[in-house]
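Handout, tutorial session.
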Amino acid sequence: LEIVLNVRQFTVTGTIEWYLDVFNAAGLTLTSVTGYENTEKDATFDSDSGPTIRGTETHPDAWQFSQELRLAGETANFDWLAGFYYFEYQIDGNQRRLSAAGFRDPVFFDLETDSWALFANGEYRFNDQWRLNAGIRYTQEDKVYALNNTDFGLVFDETTVGDAAKQDDDNISFNVRVSWDVTEDHLLYAGVSRGFKAGTFNVGFTPINFDAIPVDPERLTSYEIGFKSAFAEDTLRVSGAGFYYDYKDSQAFQFDGATLSATTFNRDAEVWGGELEVNYSPIEGLDFLVIGSYLDATLKDVELPGPLFGGGLIVDTEMPLAPKWTWTGLARYQWDAPWGGSLAIQGDVTYKSSHFFDAFNSPSHFEDGYAFGNARLSWLSEDEQWEFSVWAENITDEEYRTYAFDLSFLGFATDVFAKPRWVGGTITYKFGG
């Protein structure tokens, strides 16, 4: 099997700003941001790294255009902006599988997207201590999809399923946040926001039920409270937050090892947790950083696939790639080098508790908790243009997976492991001075 990756991409972005002085309103700025991108890709790869020939060939072509116009202004106690956004995107192509018997017939796909939005946001300062930030956005997004799986004779488009091959989504999103500067060194805040992710469609190599091909929009309501504080003349900085996320029809990803179908599906979800960050700089050049988080992420009413996993049982599962505990500690010291410039030495350690790689929480997708550390020694020139460094990643050579695919019906699973101990050096030069 010849591994191929050929990507051709053209991107152009333009930004124009006008500073206006009309209606006796100083500080008005009109901004236009225009973007265009075209991408073509040809790829062939070993799709499972298994003991037999099993590959994938894909040829997507895509282009997109976007235009944003926004008007911003400010007064003594009020900053605001309002605008319009337009986005057009089209992707089409084909993909096919390779087995010991050779390439199978291809799967053709075509997706067209048109989206536009109106938005506004403002921050009002009641006084030196209290601020209110609020925003609102209306989004309209339309999609038209066509799928022709010639391998299995499955056609999903407007001629076979009518309006089921279309997505017509509109949504009103918002955010409201109140901030209180208790003192110059202590801030409290609380906020609520609602987000939106438009619906989409599934494409795969194996046939799935027509009603599983469309994916509904995802809506998230988020609640957050937090604080930021500084102590000991700003040498000690502490911040923390607690949050609760309420997902309606979250777009969860699943890979069914019994049918080799990779699909997105809708399920409600709840996520809550907290974060704490402590940054301490006792002397000049010496910094300590500790970041910790707790996460409880539940995906509701997940139907387990096939007899290998429980055969249709409906259960709540842990969301994939969501460890309950994550901790990172970092220490860095920088000092003047005798020959000029500055030297710095840095070490960090990260710990992640156990978690799953899939929405089904299958046993082969369970990863025990692990920790790994990195170290770095560097020299930076006085003009900050040159930097030389040596580094070591995963110093203890910890063995852990970053992802996995359960292929139980074939008698094995595919595991993706993180890099082992990795030692190297880097030379960096920044142009422009």
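The second record follows below. Compare its token runs with those of the first.
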Amino acid sequence: MKIKDIKVKKVRVRIAPSPTGPLHIGTARSALFNYLFAKKNKGIFVLRIEDTDLERSDLKWTQDIIEELKWLGINWQEGPDIDGKYGPYKQSQRLDIYEKYIKKLLDESEAYHCFCSEDELEEMRQEQIDRGVSPHYNGRCANLLREEVEKFLDKNKSSVIRFKIQNKKIKFTDLIRKEIEFNAELLGDIIIAKDLKTPLYNFAAVIDDYEMQISHVIRGEDHISNTPKQILMQKALGFNQPIYAHLPLILAPDRTKLSKRHGTVSIRDYREQGYLPEALVNFMVHLGWNSGSEKEIFTLSSLVREFSLEKVQKSGAIFNIQKLDFINSFYIREKTIEKLTELCLPYLISAKLIE
């Protein structure tokens, strides 16, 4: 099945980073692919901030995400800094929306309050491991009587809200990886919220994608395991299913997932080290995408013309710093002496070589 064979009224894609640290190059790469796909298909690119983890989220990292994406030239039509039809675009401002849908699932017995303690859950896990069964929640609290639930809630007994997983095969078509199948029985009933006002990632993402009319979800392959959970929630709520495309992971030279232990991973650090935005964009697009030609240097506008998800690879993309240095040196040589002087001044002042 080709992308052009899939009919949607309007292409709407999103990037939804959590503001818990500086913008990671992997997140920036996902933003770039979403941006290019939207531009190529005359669609809308949405920036959504997933900040429901209030303990770890910080406004300074939201600002970092916005500033670094704009510095790269990756712009959005709807987001926390731009009024849009489907806002607000920060999850912390959408708690009433999530509560409405949590109550709907509870009322329809698609979800339930779970009062199991950590000790009980650990006992459950160990018993399943001893039997050679993949650990999962066994639904112990799924059939509690309403009176029991209300009594526990009145006593403020610690609880979470779980979604009932149907024991069936989940199949979906991924635009990059084709047909994918999961056995939902292995998942167990998953936690979707700590309480009515505190949704967790999988649930909030489902609600936001529906409410913001997202047509395509383009994200890293580490989210593939989340997809069947989200599809089951979409079905329970009567939502349309978006089209999925899972990008290959960015790997370090040792073929492990790229992380801080391999060196610089944030866009701000690359920026401070003197890398140019056009170089980073040109480098990032090759982390999983191939134009099919020998050409390595692309402007952002030419990438829009050339880009397609059919040319995205399935295997991991190796991060090659030498290639980034080569591309950056090309763009440096393209600068006029006046522009190069302007770019160098902050570094010369910081090094106290000039005042």
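Points raised in discussion: The chain has a mean pLDDT of 93.
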